[in-house]
């Protein structure tokens, strides 16, 4: 037994945590937490905390642990030990400094990627425990500033990026115009009732990556799909409230999203290449509303592209010749089993594919997911240094020839961009849609 | 005095131990079930027997999961330990004979030399676990006093049993220690981290259900 | 209301052949049909980079750079959002409103179709415009446009206090309010979402969040005394003016009235409640258990449940009957009066009641063809496209509107059928 010096002070300045913490007293913390434990601390929490035999076998699952010199503070169980165990043991009687540190751990040192669930012999869901802490932090108002701001945007605009109603529609008009320069009479059908497909995207697409909407429109057009997008809120399928612990807002966001698709009498929701949104729509948000599974079927872009190639709706003009590797995003692979479908699409469109190792369900997280990148610049350094194992994995794929990383998830995309830059890897990151757009007959 | 203690631990105490274990386990199951019904309905809503068994199957089969292959020594030790831990107390000739004498029921037992080896395996495994807690920093960081105490509680009946069986010094006193420590072990199972024995099928099964039925992915 | 003037003579009327349109124009968007079935219209491209609307084969005389959201008003006139030289406005039957704006969207009609309101923006200043008259006040943002039944009053959620992105604590003090006909309530909230006008248009109720954790209903700027874990859209009782809303309390969702719990029952979910015209009955979509959906009338759930969803709850004109669309095991169904109709479909639209409340007709889709189901029996007509059926004012006839009946896949016809033949 050794006494580790408890690093119980949050080390990185963050207005959301610092100012949020200033408003708190120990009594208040105790009151809020004990009420929370009473209301929401159920059998899962109890059993997970009790059955963990402290074997440490989860450590090797975690890229934070692996990237930070095997520092046990970063192991999944180590994070639970620091940020949750004292809360349970002291029944919420913890200090403001403790909460601030717990918030930093839960929000910025765990991507909720659930890899450790596959490494724990008991299947203890560490992501659930980290989210439990995040929800406590939400209730205490001690959430990192950037992601809290995003949650506010969700609540005020029903999208992640403060995009106003008119800006959304205008962006679609603009992308439609742009696309018509390339493909005459291409249409982004707005509010087309009874279309087969309701296509939804995440807030950053109209804000920063509008060309992805353009590409999606070209793909839909080439495949002859009957599709539509709403001119109302509900177009954004993303969900940072899921990561700040604001479950009431998660429910509201998903209601708006599903009801937009239902109002338009569409048969299924096809979503862009986003991982966390898939988790929210396929797995999490529906539950908060009482839908066991999503009420309309939800098809992630990977599965959609797979269908298009399988059914010969898209034809490849020329395969993409630069060697590619695939980053399996946790939320659609560990959370949706789409890994083989992604490989199918790659084999249809690319001539050289290099596997990275580990892969599929065992792939390392990009380091950005779970809302971590959304906690913003204060944590960029930590995020980059905690992606060392990812960088090694990418470097290995690069050594075996891969020049392009396909990452069918927005968060992964941004995370990998930072990693590639930080570690000086000569690799480009693309969406599956980028590749398909490049190589199909339009 | 010795005799009185012996007949107490050999008689009423056995009843107490088995009762505490059984009632305690039942209590844990029922209270956890009720708590889950109240606050974790998700567990019932998404439980799938097929996927639960698929997951459990992969985790009770040595080296079926990636992490087991990553830690071969730990895997071998963990499986040997758990197998011997269960098999020895139930199939030890001395124990079976006691059941025979008490209730006239019996079953096949292990040859004593085999049992002897298995007991030693358990003890060596406990040493291995102890060593992990001391020498592996990721385990050391997680370890608290209670983890050592539980390890000691598990090892005690096996060490004392081996001692008594081989009739080393003061073996009759050690026999009492053996019986008491065995009874204590049984009694603390439902109320300590040893309850992982009770809840393993549920935690693993629930995760297997979520991964299999909802997420279409493996969890091993 | 206009139905009685419409042509209710039994028979089939061929209105237009869309194949002609497709030959004439290289671009024909999906068509829309007027409530009386006499007109079919679509956005078309008569010239390069110029758009117009073709209604029964006739083009609007004005061409535009862009047209979107073509819709028929309840009184059968045709409205679209149009732009010329980067200025957007509303065109009614081809004639534009006088003023243009940077952008317009979210077209809303009064129940009788006489009034039109849209949301608009000029130089980042947001407001609503009713029949060409903009609000006097403008706001830094505007959403959730809502109009009263008579269309005389319009409300929207507006931003009342400016904050920069990242100013989370300022946001948490409340920076949003509602504006009615341009005038802000004066009280600010973290968030305001769905709103409802009272039937007379004089009062406005809204879902609000007062803090990150406290949700309640606000009526004319005044919040209810009690806070809840969450709330859904409030509704006014058409008779006594009281306000009800689904609210989340410990133990589930309940219906509350004027801040007090009104239904004793708790549900896993409860939303989209509707009043009967006399205000005596309330029906709502509910989930009595996780993953089980149905309708509850005055708190009592139907015995039949659906495991995917229930939507499009409709109350009959006499207030005694309820119908809805529902989905179970991937199939869509129609349910009415507590019972599920036999056939499953690929899609079901909102049920339509006859004025005497005795009949229900529903547009459905199966294997890519569209049908109308009346009182559980599918009509023996199928279409490549169809619109909601409408009953005649005397409830004796029904109008079926569709393309592709009788073998001609591009011909749009309106059919008047006698219900009792």
Keywords:
heterotrimer; A: 442 residues; mainly alpha; Rossmann fold; four-stranded parallel beta sheet; 52% helix; disordered N terminus; C: 421 residues; mainly beta; five-stranded antiparallel beta sheet; 2 helices; 51% strand; globular
Percent range of helical residues of chain C: under 10%
Distance between the termini of chain A: 65 Å
Mean pLDDT of chain C: 96
Could you give a short account of the major beta sheet of chain A? 4 strands, parallel
Major sheet: arrangement of strands of chain A: 2-1-3-4
Strand fraction of chain C equals over 45%
Give the distance, in angstroms, between the N- and C-terminal Cα atoms of chain C: 25 Å
Low-confidence stretches of chain A: 1-7
Number of strands of chain A: 8
Count of domains of chain A: 3
Classify the beta-strand content of chain A into a percent band.
5-15%
Briefly say what this structure is.
The complex is a heterotrimer of chains A (442), B (220) and C (421). Chain B has 220 residues and is mainly α.
Describe the secondary structure blueprint for this structure.
The complex is a heterotrimer of chains A (442), B (220) and C (421).
Chain A: H1 15-22, H2 26-40, H3 43-51, H4 63-67, H5 76-83, H6 85-89, H7 96-108, H8 126-140, H9 145-157, H10 165-182, E1 197-200, H11 204-208, H12 210-223, E2 227-228, H13 241-244, H14 247-263, E3 268-271, H15 275-289, E4 297-300, H16 301-310, E5 324-326, H17 330-333, H18 339-349, E6 353-354, H19 380-385, H20 388-399, E7 404-406, H21 410-422, E8 428-430, H22 432-439
Chain B: H1 2-10, H2 12-39, H3 41-46, H4 49-59, H5 66-70, H6 72-91, H7 93-103, H8 112-135, H9 137-142, H10 145-165, H11 171-188, H12 196-214
Chain C: E1 11-17, H1 18-24, E2 32-33, E3 40-47, E4 50-55, E5 58-59, E6 66-72, E7 78-84, E8 87-92, E9 95-96, E10 103-109, E11 116-122, E12 125-130, E13 133-134, E14 142-147, E15 154-159, H2 168-171, E16 176-180, E17 183-184, E18 191-197, E19 204-209, E20 215-219, E21 222-223, E22 230-231, E23 235-236, E24 243-249, E25 252-257, E26 260-261, E27 269-275, E28 282-289, E29 292-297, E30 300-301, E31 309-315, E32 322-328, E33 331-336, E34 339-340, E35 347-348, E36 352-353, E37 360-366, E38 369-374, E39 377-378, E40 385-391, E41 397-403, E42 411-418
Antiparallel strand pairs in C: 1-42, 2-3, 3-4, 4-5, 6-7, 7-8, 8-9, 10-11, 11-12, 12-13, 14-15, 15-16, 16-17, 18-19, 19-20, 20-21, 22-24, 23-24, 24-25, 25-26, 27-28, 28-29, 29-30, 31-32, 32-33, 33-34, 35-37, 36-37, 37-38, 38-39, 40-41, 41-42
């Amino acid at each position: 037994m050794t006494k580790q010096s408890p690093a119980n002070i949050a080390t990185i300045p963050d207005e959301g945590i610092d100012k949020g913490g200033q408003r708190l007293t120990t009594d208040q913390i105790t009151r809020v937490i004990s009420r929370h434990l009473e209301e929401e601390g159920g059998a899962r929490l109890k059993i997970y905390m009790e059955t963990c035999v402290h074997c440490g076998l989860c450590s090797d699952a975690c890229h934070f642990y692996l990237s930070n010199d095997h520092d046990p503070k970063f192991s999944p169980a180590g994070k639970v030990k620091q940020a949750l165990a004292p809360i349970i043991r002291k029944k919420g009687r913890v200090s403001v400094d403790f909460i601030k540190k717990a918030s930093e751990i839960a929000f910025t040192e765990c991507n909720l990627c659930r890899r450790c669930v596959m490494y724990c012999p008991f299947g203890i869901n560490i992501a659930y425990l980290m989210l439990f802490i995040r929800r406590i932090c939400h209730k205490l108002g001690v959430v990192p500033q950037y992601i809290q701001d995003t949650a506010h945007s969700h609540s005020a605009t029903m999208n992640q990026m403060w995009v106003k109603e008119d800006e959304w529609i205008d962006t679609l008009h603009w992308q439609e115009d742009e696309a018509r320069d390339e493909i005459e009479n291409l249409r982004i059908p707005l509010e087309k009732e009874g279309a087969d497909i309701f296509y939804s995207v995440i807030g950053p697409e109209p804000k920063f990556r509008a060309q992805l909407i353009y590409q999606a429109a070209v793909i839909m057009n080439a495949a002859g799909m009957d599709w539509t997008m709403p001119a109302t809120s509900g177009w954004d399928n993303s969900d940072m409230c899921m990561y700040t612990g604001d479950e009431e807002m998660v429910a509201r966001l998903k209601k708006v999203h599903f009801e937009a698709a239902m109002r338009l009498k569409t048969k299924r929701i096809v979503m862009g290449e986003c991982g966390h949104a898939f988790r929210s729509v396929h797995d999490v948000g529906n539950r908060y509303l009482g839908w066991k599974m999503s009420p309309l079927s939800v098809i992630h872009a990977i599965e959609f592209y797979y269908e298009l190639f399988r059914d010969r709706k898209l034809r490849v003009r020329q395969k993409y010749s630069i060697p590619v590797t695939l980053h399996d995003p946790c939320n659609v692979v560990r959370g949706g089993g789409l890994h083989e479908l992604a490989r199918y699409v790659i084999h249809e469109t690319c001539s050289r594919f290099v596997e990275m190792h580990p892969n599929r369900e065992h792939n390392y997280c990009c380091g950005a997911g779970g809302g971590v990148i959304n906690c913003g610049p204060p944590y960029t350094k930590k995020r980059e240094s905690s992606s060392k194992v990812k960088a090694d994995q990418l470097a290995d794929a690069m050594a075996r020839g891969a020049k392009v990383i396909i990452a069918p998830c927005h968060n992964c995309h941004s995370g990998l961009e930072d990693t590639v830059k930080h570690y000086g890897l000569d690799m480009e990151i693309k969406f599956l849609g980028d590749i398909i757009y490049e190589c199909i007959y339009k | 005095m010795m005799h009185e203690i012996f007949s107490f631990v050999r008689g009423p105490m056995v009843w107490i131990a088995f009762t505490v274990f059984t009632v305690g386990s039942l209590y844990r199951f029922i209270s956890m079930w009720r708590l889950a019904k109240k606050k974790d309905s998700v567990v019932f809503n998404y439980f799938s027997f097929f996927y639960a068994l698929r997951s459990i199957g992969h985790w009770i089969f040595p080296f079926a999961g990636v992490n087991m292959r990553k830690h071969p020594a730990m895997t071998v030790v963990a499986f040997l330990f758990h197998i011997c831990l269960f098999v020895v107390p139930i199939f030890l000739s001395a124990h079976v004979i006691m059941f025979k004498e008490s209730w006239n029921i019996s079953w096949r037992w292990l040859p004593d030399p085999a049992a002897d080896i298995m007991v030693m395996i358990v003890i060596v495994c406990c040493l291995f676990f102890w060593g992990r807690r001391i020498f592996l920093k990721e385990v050391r960081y997680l370890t608290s006093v209670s983890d050592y105490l539980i390890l000691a509680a598990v090892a005690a009946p096996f060490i004392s049993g081996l001692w008594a069986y081989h009739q080393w010094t003061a073996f009759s006193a050690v026999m009492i220690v053996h019986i008491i420590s065995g009874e204590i072990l049984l009694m603390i199972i439902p109320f300590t981290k040893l309850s992982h024995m009770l809840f393993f099928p549920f935690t693993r099964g629930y995760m297997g259900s979520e991964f299999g039925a909802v997420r279409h992915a493996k969890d091993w | 209301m206009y139905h009685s003037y419409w042509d209710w003579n039994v028979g089939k009327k061929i209105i237009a052949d869309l194949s002609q349109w497709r030959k004439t124009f290289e671009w024909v968007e999906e068509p829309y049909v007027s409530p009386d079935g006499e007109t079919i219209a679509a956005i078309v491209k008569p010239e390069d980079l110029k758009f117009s609307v073709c209604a029964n084969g006739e083009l609007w005389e004005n061409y535009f750079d862009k047209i979107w959201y073509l819709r028929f008003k309840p009184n059968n006139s045709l409205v679209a959002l149009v732009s010329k030289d980067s200025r957007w406005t509303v065109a009614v039957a081809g004639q534009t409103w006088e003023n243009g704006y940077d952008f317009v969207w979210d077209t809303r009609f009064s129940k009788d179709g006489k009034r039109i309101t849209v949301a608009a923006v000029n130089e980042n200043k947001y407001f609503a415009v009713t029949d060409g008259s903009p609000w006097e006040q403008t706001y830094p943002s505007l959403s959730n446009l809502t109009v009263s039944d008579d269309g005389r009053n319009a409300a929207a959620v507006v931003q009342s206090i400016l904050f920069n992105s990242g100013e989370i604590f300022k946001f948490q003090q409340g920076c949003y309010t509602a504006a009615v006909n341009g005038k802000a309530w004066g009280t600010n909230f973290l968030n305001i979402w769905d709103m409802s006008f009272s039937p007379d248009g004089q009062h406005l109720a809204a879902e609000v969040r007062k803090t990150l954790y406290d949700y309640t209903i606000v009526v004319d700027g005044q919040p209810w005394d009690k806070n809840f874990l969450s709330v859904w859209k409030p509704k006014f009782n058409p008779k006594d003016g009281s306000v009800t809303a689904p609210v989340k309390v410990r133990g589930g969702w309940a219906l509350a009235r004027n801040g007090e719990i009104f239904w004793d029952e708790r549900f896993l979910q409860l939303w989209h409640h509707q009043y009967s015209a006399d205000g005596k009955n309330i029906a709502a979509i509910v989930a009595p258990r996780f993953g089980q959906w149905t309708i509850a009338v005055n708190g009592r759930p139907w015995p039949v449940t659906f495991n995917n969803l229930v939507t499009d709850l409709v109350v009959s004109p006499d207030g005694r009957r309820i119908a809805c669309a529902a989905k179970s095991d991937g199939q869509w169904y129609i349910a009415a009066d507590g019972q599920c109709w036999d056939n499953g479909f690929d899609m079901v639209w909102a049920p339509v009641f006859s004025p005497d409340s005795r009949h229900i007709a529903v547009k459905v889709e199966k294997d890519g063809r569209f049908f109308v189901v009346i009182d559980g029996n599918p009509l023996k007509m199928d279409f490549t496209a169809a619109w909601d059926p409408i009953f005649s004012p005397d409830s004796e006839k029904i109008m079926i509107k569709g393309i592709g009946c009788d073998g001609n896949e591009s011909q749009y016809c309106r059919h008047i059928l006698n219900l009792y033949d």
